Amino acid sequence: MARAYNFSPGPAALPEAVLRQAQADMLEWGDAGASIVEMSHRGPEFLQVARQAEADLRTLLAIPDDYAVLFPAGGATTQQALIALNFAGAGQRVDYVVSGHWGKTALKQLVSVDVNIAASGDSDGFRTIPARETWRLSKEAAYVHITANETIHGVEFRPGWGRVPPDTGDVPLFADFSSSIASEPVDVSKYGLIYAGAQKNLGPVGISVVIVRRDLLERAGQPRADIFDYRSQLANESMLNTPPTWNWYLLGQTVRWMIEQGGTAEFDRRSALKSKLLYEAIDGSGGFYRNEVDPSVRSRMNVPFFLAEAALDAAFLEGAREAGLIGLKGHRVLGGMRASIYNAMPVEGVQALVDYMQEFRRHHG
Ligand SMILES: *Cc1c(COP(=O)(O)O)cnc(C)c1O
């Protein structure tokens, strides 16, 4: 069976080379006599896998030494809850900029902190990101939280919006990079904390990455169980309890693949090319397809689009499937379609989608 071009938003497509290697490694790790997924996380084989994954991630993202890297079990939503516990004292002010569904989700994870919504794109359906001048930031906030790329609404902090990342003065900037990490070079030193669930751009679901300026770990947080304490996790190499070893291994393989492909500079180039192809096909369709996001903040990773006639949605998806293009159904919050074009999606996959869209329009336009 041929593998389709998979536009799924997450869990998302993995590079075929990574899946093939994983297939080989599944049965036996080297000559260890067992699979990597069957061995102790404290044994030399897995420790080597875990440490190599961190070293490679540091290389890929050019993470400075004064930043710690954690590999916590669970998703981005889990980290949304944990960052408040770890960095804000009880009742302390935290600032949130809400630019879409995941920014709203982040708010729902907050308890016993004083939340200030510094800005929100809600009033225009998250088609823009409020200009930096309009943000009402608090001087005493523990941190300012943004979502670098909104996976559902398809809005991303891009240079056309203004200075990226936004300046937040002395208050550290925390960013949810779940769906855009490693898609372009990022100056990590501009952030206090970056987190990402792995299942969009970094590998499989079940594990996250947290990159945090070390000195921030010593700031007051709230009383919390050891297992939720980033300091304890760091002291124990993210192995306070049994980590999701297979996921960690797959993440490491995916990171290694990205380095071999040319790193974030190369994915920047590919993301620019892929997103341009797709947006031009949508904008040039005479209204048959439409994307409603302000072009200055259009996401290069997730492209939501609508057919002028929603009655054609089912036929569009059915035809796409027959053409070997899957995962295009839009999120239930927005409806319509969405093409997620993460690092593992080759340019040819986007070209195949664009060709199909033009063909479909010729038949139904
Ligand atoms: C997918 C996603 C999340 C939620 O991730 P989970 O791993 O399901 O908790 C949060 N933020 C963004 C930007 C996402 O794309």
TrEMBL record:
Cofactor entry: pyridoxal 5'-phosphate
InterPro entries (UniProt xref): Aminotrans_V_dom (IPR000192), Aminotrans_V_PyrdxlP_BS (IPR020578), Pser_aminoTfrase (IPR022278), PyrdxlP-dep_Trfase (IPR015424), PyrdxlP-dep_Trfase_major (IPR015421), PyrdxlP-dep_Trfase_small (IPR015422)
Binding site for pyridoxal 5'-phosphate: A76, T77, W102, T151, D176, Q199, N241, T242
Metabolic or biological pathway, per its Swiss-Prot or TrEMBL entry: Cofactor biosynthesis; pyridoxine 5'-phosphate biosynthesis; pyridoxine 5'-phosphate from D-erythrose 4-phosphate: step 3/5; Amino-acid biosynthesis; L-serine biosynthesis; L-serine from 3-phospho-D-glycerate: step 2/3
Binding site for L-glutamate: R42
Domain Aminotransferase class V: 5-353
Catalytic class of the enzyme: transferase
Modified residues (N6-(pyridoxal phosphate)lysine): K200
GO biological process: L-serine biosynthetic process; pyridoxine biosynthetic process
Cofactor notes: Binds 1 pyridoxal phosphate per subunit.
Subunit and interaction comment: Homodimer.
Designated name of the protein: Phosphoserine aminotransferase
Organism: Luteimonas viscosa
